[in-house]
Structures are given as C-alpha cells and as structure tokens.
Amino acid sequence: xxEPQESTHEIxxxxxxxxxxxxxxxxxxxxxxxxxxxxxxxxVVMAMNGRFDNAAxxxxxxxxxxxxxxxVARMTNTQSAFGEQMDSLSDMVSFGAAPALIVYEWxxxxxxxxxxxxxxxxxxxxxxxxxxFNTNIGVVDKRFFQGLPSPAGAALVAGFxxxxxxxxxxxxxxxxxxxxxxxxxxxxxAGLTMVTNVxxxxxxxxxxxxxxxxxxxxxxxxxMALISQHVPGMLFGLFLLYGLSGYGxxxxxxxxxxxxxxxxxxxxxxxERGMHR
Length: 277
Description:
The protein is an all-alpha fold.
C-alpha cells in the first residue's frame, strides 16, 4: 500500500518568508533624497550669508522633496536598504542640523550659552526622533507618528523665521528681547515635542488613488488659494496647528480613557515592556 503523499496545497499556501531588502542603489529615488539634502545644505549657506528668507525656503523645499523620495521608490519598486539609510542621513541634515544652525545664527546667538543650548537640544532631539522612528517602524501604528515628525519640527522653526523676516525683522533680531525669547521657546517646543509619545496623524491612510467627494477638491482649491495670499504666514499657521494637534489628541484620548500610545500592544518582545502606556 502506497504511503500518503505530502500535500502540496499546504506547501503552496504556506506564508512565504519576507523578502530581504535590496542592497542595490537606484538612481531615481536617491535623486530626490540628494535634492532634499541639497535643500538643507543650501539653507545653511544662505543663513551664513544673512539670507534667512532663502534659508527657510530651502528647508521647505527639502520637506517637499523628502515626501516624494519614498513615494517614488514605492511606485517604481526601487526600495532598498541603501535608500532607507540615505533618507535618514538626509533628514538629519535638512531637518535636524540645518534648522538648529539657522535659528542660532538668526536669533539665539546673542543669548550665549542659553542660545546654543536650545539649538543643540533641538538638533539632538531630531537625531533621537529619527533613530526611534527607524527602530520602532515595525511596531508603530501606521496611521500615527510617535512624536512630532522632524520635517514638521523644522517647518515650525524655519516658518517662524520666514514670517518674521517677511514682517521686516531682518537685522538686529538679536537685540529684540521678546523676539529672541519667543524663538528660544519655540525651538525648545519643536525639539522636545519630537521626542514625546504624543500621537500625530500621519495621513498615510489617505490614498491618491481612492475616489473622494467633489467637495474635497473644492476644499483643496480653497486651501491653495488661501496659502497663496501669504505663503509664510499660512504655512507657519498650518504647521503650528499640526504641532498643537498632537497634544489635543493626547488630551482627548486621556479624557476618553483610550490608549494614547501609538506602539502596538504586542508584548511578545521583552524589549517592548513599558512601551505601551
């Protein structure tokens, strides 16, 4: 009597192991990453030459390019481990070191130790936030960010400089106490908020291929028209609202008694103990 053969159906339907990240270097997505890195470098050079409006524009251009490199990589199926590391290094320059150096040169330099300490705290928090994002990417709810994203933190700092420069505060900023200390407080707020566990909506579940109501396109058109009226003020206002929205969501969840952490509730790994509060 023949022995029963092993079922091929079970083999075929078994879950395949995850494909390892490619180690190649792809030109297209890394071009966007390099362009974002150039935006951060350009911002620092402009700040060194006293062109703080151009420095802020460089940071915002880096934000746009940074949001495109990952999308381009996924659309063209050119994701790679090299691209991931390159993106993190570019973010550290454009959204960590560059805003810290710009704000220090613009207003914090006259405060002495308190000034460079605030700039360093921002820079360090950006590095810590990026490192935490890379290590927690597999356990964080994709709909939310854990802490303020570094591009949004950079937008708060650079946007404030841009709006003040547009208002005429171009020279002698270090001699205006209220402006210097407001900048100091905003820099610390942006930096420390990046390393909190406050949840921020990521907009990753918003798909461009999904159908939307007609009123959505009307709202987008109105938003573009409003931003065009005063670009620095509207951009800073939008990112300020976003920076405060996380705290609003945190308080709302606390009041409802729902979990505020965006870390998944799996406790299989010993290193995850104490991360789900």
